[in-house]
Description:
By secondary structure, the chain is mostly helical. Helix content is 65%, strand content 0%. The two termini are 15 Å apart.
Amino acid sequence: MRTSGFAPAEAPEGEPYHRLARGSRYRWWVPPLSLLVLAFLLFFLWVAVALALTIVALAEGGGLGTGSVRVGEIASLAIGLVSAALLIPIVLLVVRVVQWRRVGTLMSVEGRMRWPWLGRCVALAVAPVAVSVLLYLSLSDDFRTGTMSGGASSGAEVAAVSVSILVILLLVPFQSVAEEVTLRGLVMQWVGSLGAPAHGPGGDRAVARVLRSPAPAILASGTLFAALYASAYPGDVWTTATLTVMGTSTAWLTWRTGGLEAAIGLHLVNGLVQLVLCVLEGRTAAIGTGVVIGAGPPGMGGPFGLALAVGVMVSYALTVTWFARRAGLRRTSAVARA
């Protein structure tokens, strides 16, 4: 059967998730070109976000708003979540046009999003996140003194809290998917594609063997966001450690289960709970500053937050891997029959 020369590359046969970008159309210049195009598109996204936030600030400062600081907070919240969600089309464009492969190879080794497995991962994330929230609330001064409403004493304030929660419920699913397809998807497969195949030229070299292994891809995709956070907040060691634990754990789960579903499931549940709690505590303005980003458990920022992160990730990883084994989940791409 003849195939079009413009057809996208299929996934390489019998490879784990982190190696799926090394298809038949892979060339040495694809990784640097992918980075260049990604940086170009992210720059314009950053400019658009900065412009939108500036317009909101000018509108509030110039008296064009309603006079409530909550309006600006809600607008900034929505802009931040939408800007994160816009990573989805950017990443898919890089995968499909620059790397010239099917976007399904970004989702799993089966070349698609495994929706039933994603639904199960979301359900499995509820219990560990709920336990961490209960532990957090039990030690929260606001919870013990009954001031979790963030000062929402008037009807307008209650409405603002309600609108903020609605924005979170509508946009956090897209934000969660966007961050995972970027960090646990594109970054992991970008690093994993660098090692030459074992049967190809240079494939027997030590460097190639290391790059083919999952460790560099897991570390890169799991620590990138923590490194960016540390550069912006160098004194916040505990939060950096928490982000590192969460990132590397979800990266390992992505490799172990052969897809993004486990990482997305935890991120979705954890992000929804954490951001809603921030709104109820009156910390809406902190969302998006890096202190609260939806990737860590409530209360992170100290040794207790780090302990919560470790507890959540250990329990979630054990449960997910057990169910993955029982379900016979594929961990490598299919091999064509002779």
